[in-house]
UniProtKB/TrEMBL annotation:
Pfam family, any one: Glyoxalase
Descriptive protein name: Fosfomycin resistance glutathione transferase
EC number of the protein: 2.5.1.18
Keywords: Transferase
Position of the signal peptide: none
Residues of the VOC domain: 4-115
InterPro entries: Glyas_Bleomycin-R_OHBP_Dase, Glyas_Fos-R_dOase_dom, GlyoxalaseI/FosfomycinResist, VOC_core
Length: 138
């Protein structure tokens, strides 16, 4: 039986550039590094960067992305940090909660989001997506 998300591994073209982005811009903790990889962390997140020459660096056309939590108090500061570092934005926010959608140096689509599943479900109860059904007794 699955118990949760274990870790994310992102293929990167330039380990040092990506390590600097996740460490210095996003402020993840560096747990370990090796010749072509690194382990970083945030509370509840284990992220592996793995150097891969096959990584194209082009973001996919679909909506697949990785959302990272940020507090409401820190959201504006984080967005300013990302913009001042000239981090590309790939989408405008269209859903509940403050969000900033941005690309890492290898074109991985990321989102900084204020809120959680419970706040999203509460917003959806107020304005459900077309055909949305909730699987509880509320």
């Amino acid at each position: 039986m699955l118990t949760g998300l274990n870790h994310l591994t992102l293929a990167v073209r330039d380990l040092q550039r990506s390590l600097a982005f996740y460490r210095d811009v996003l402020q993840l903790n560096v747990e370990a590094t090796w010749d072509n990889g690194a382990y970083l962390s945030l509370p509840g997140l284990w992220l592996c960067l793995s150097e891969d020459p096959q990584r194209s660096g082009e973001p996919g056309a679909d909506y697949t992305h990785y959302a990272l939590s940020v507090s409401a108090a820190d959201f504006t500061s984080l967005v300013e940090t990302l913009k001042s570092a000239q981090v590309p934005q790939w989408r405008d926010n269209r859903s509940e909660g403050a969000s900033f959608y941005f690309l890492d140096p290898d074109g991985h689509k990321l989102e900084a989001h204020v809120g959680d599943l419970q706040s999203r479900l509460a917003a959806c109860r107020q304005k459900p997506y077309p055909g949305m059904r909730f699987n509880d007794a509320q």
